[in-house]
Amino acid sequence: MINPLEIGDLKLKIPVIQGGMGVGISLSKLAGSVAREGGMGVISTAQIGFREPDFLKNPLEANFRALKKEIAKAKEIGKGGVIGANIMVATRHYKEYVKNAVLAGVDVILSGAGLPVDLPEYVKGSKVKIAPIISSLKAFTVISRVWERKYARYPDFVVVEGPKAGGHLGFKREELDAYTPENYERELTAMIRQAAELEIPLIAAGGIYDRRDLEHCLSLGAAGVQMGTRFVTTEECDAAEAYKQEYLRAQKEDIVIVKSPVGMPGRAIQNAFLEKVAAGERFMTGCRHCIKTCDPKTAPYCITRALINAAMGDVDNGLLFCGSNAWRAQKIERTVDIMEEMA
User: Fold this and answer.
1) What average pLDDT does the segment 136-150 reach?
2) Pick from 215, 161, 225, 220: which is nearest to 186 by CA?
3) Staple partner for 236: which of 33, 44, 87, 183, CB 3.0–4.6 Å?
4) d(CA 257, CA 245)
5) CA separation (Å) from 316 to 86, 151, 194, 242?
6) How many H-runs (helices) and E-runs (strands) does the chain carry?
7) Model pTM above 0.90
8) Burial of 105 by CB count in 10 Å (0-12 exposed, 13-18 middle, 19+ buried)?
9) Rg, C-alpha atoms of the chain
10) What is the pLDDT of residues 155-184, one digit of tens each?
11) Residues 308, 303: Cα–Cα separation, whole Å
């Protein structure tokens, strides 16, 4: 039997957190369906308002408006289940995104792509649970000490995202090249021990795809897992059908590490767009003010535009982030069936 996951007064019947996937991959439909089945559904706030009519002129206002709408829809679909928001620390106006998510009634905020050292300050006075997404024991130690010293608290839980994850990765390219399963498991086990000492639930992430992966992580002492890639090829995923078909088409050798224009390595599906970028073509048209580390003067393409293109089905002109196991997808599934497998 798989035990439920308790995070303060929140309870997940199935200890599975659906990974936040932007731009436009995990919105209300996917997050709500996972929450309804007993897991935690997570909305990515990354350029969440790209479908709003004024997005190009007023991206910030459009994003905040869409965030409120998507959380409300997810809550409705989720029928009382737990809804989280994934907000990257590297996002411009990070503080405002957090405060807007709290006002919109989200249950949990998860933050990676940097250390969310001041996140407790931004949720003060609310019941919202907060969790850093980290990739190393050092980061875990730092964030725990800072939060304890400044705010007299620890994270409500922590997500440890390993090198097999999708999208932007918390590792340098040379670290990814030197990765071995044994090294990662050693690091994960050390973090599980530290989490146990602090009485913080630890969630393992990166490369989690099926029931066997869940059972292995639980056997190591993790309290649950975070899965992203597996949920992309579901009926409920918010991405366009063409996006999902690219996952079904992908072979193992098609999954590559790319250098993102925002300065971080990332994992994606090799396609015509990446071939054009590798050949030196430049696709920088305007700036959508998304990530602090992006320099529009030197960036080969606008990552917002590339991710929006992909999410809307223009896959030949888009960037398709994915986890290391995307090649294992063989069919379009239902969220309820995945959650039953994990239960």
Assistant:
1) 95
2) 220
3) 33
4) 20
5) 27, 47, 44, 10
6) 13, 13
7) yes
8) middle
9) 18
10) 999 999 999 999 888 888 888 888 888 888
11) 8
